């Protein structure tokens, strides 16, 4: 997932011992282990490790029984996250596999369901890393996003020998961590049909840390039919499913939403290893990852065979989500509720020793303003923090138990 400014506290995950895992869980774990091995160098754009990972994904699609191809593109030098790097013009590739729709199923045949996951990560850290002081340690990105890539391969295995009405296109994207570059390229050069024929796009980014069966389906508000459809497939109570939100998230689905396609982003939520060198395979909940893959396969299959159109629901593009931004601004140290809350950003806690803790912010507070900026959602909050520097003193307005309160925080330095 693209860099977002929030940090979260530790949540212990106790992965099941490997010998008790189901065959599906073993398969996804094996894929995560390969992709998130040190040998893959953190899958940074322009590395031999990312090239190896791409070849692994293509071979995985082929072994599942699908035709797989590379979609080569060059990293645009003017992308905001690329400007201060040497990555402009560097060659990279999406990996695409196609499961053709069934001839003769009339209208359904002309449409495509895209299932995607990015397979690149941060390499040795640097841009986007939450631990800039980690030096040259490999950022393996086991959850971000070897997990989604492994789920993508598993869904290919689950569906490859079936015959959907609509075509299903599997895409492993590159360049996500540099600003959803692979998905943006795909939307401009869609395969095998024009972008208007995309019925829906399902994105998996960070799906390897299922805790308490809590699965987020962000983007559920992008088609009127999504909430009921997700609900009907989430039986018998497979997940504590939180389906909500528009399609402007910090990951590949946003590129499709910008092209006015219905999208869903499956996500098992943030954790303290997010964008750190500690996002390793041994913290992956393999059984949970296999369950997410099965669920997304069911959603994809239902969408690929469902008669009738989806009713797209647009939403205005938030300011801070537009350009990928520059830098990460100042550090506050709150733990936001990623499922959103009306009229502000509800926090579920603060990081120990953080400016937020020192200012007296508490779990349950709803932040409505930071400094001069009103905060209606996570984007506003990101924006507000980006407009400040470490050392700035800001007044933060919160609603606590329905009562407006003001606290003063001295913002810190990110990564400290
Ligand atoms: Zn990421």
Element-level helix/strand string = HHEEEHEHEEHEHEHHEEHEEHEE
Count of DSSP H/I helices:
10
Backbone CA Rg: 21 Å
Strand content: 15-25%
- Ligand types: zinc ion
Note the gap between the termini: 21 Å
Percentage of residues in helical conformation: 25-40%
Shape: globular
Oligomer class: single chain
Alpha-beta classification = alpha/beta
Report the biggest beta sheet as strand number plus sense, adding barrel if it closes.
8 strands, mixed
**Low-confidence segments:** 7-11, 321-326
How many individual β-strands? 14
Mean pLDDT: 89
**Strand arrangement in the largest pleated sheet:** 1-2-4-3-5-8-6-7
Structure report:
This protein starts with 22 loop residues before the first helix and ends in a 6-residue tail after the last strand. With 416 residues, it is of the alpha/beta class. It has helices at 23-35, 48-64, 142-159, 181-188, 226-233, 253-258, 286-305, 319-322, 355-359, 378-386; strands at residues 67-74, 91-99, 112-118, 167-173, 198-204, 214-218, 240-244, 263-267, 334-336, 345-350, 366-370, 373-374, 393-400, 403-410. It is built from ten helices and 14 strands. The radius of gyration is 21 Å and the shape is globular. The chain is 26% helix and 20% strand. Helix 1 (23-35) crosses helix 3 (142-159), helix 1 (23-35) packs across helix 7 (286-305) and helix 2 packs parallel to helix 3 (142-159). An eight-stranded mixed beta sheet has the order 1-2-4-3-5-8-6-7, sandwiched between helices. Strands 9, 10, 11, 12, 13 and 14 form a six-stranded antiparallel beta sheet that branches. It binds zinc ion. Zinc ion (ZN) binds at residues 1-2, 144, 177, 275. Residues 1-2, 144, 177, 275 line the site of zinc ion (ZN).
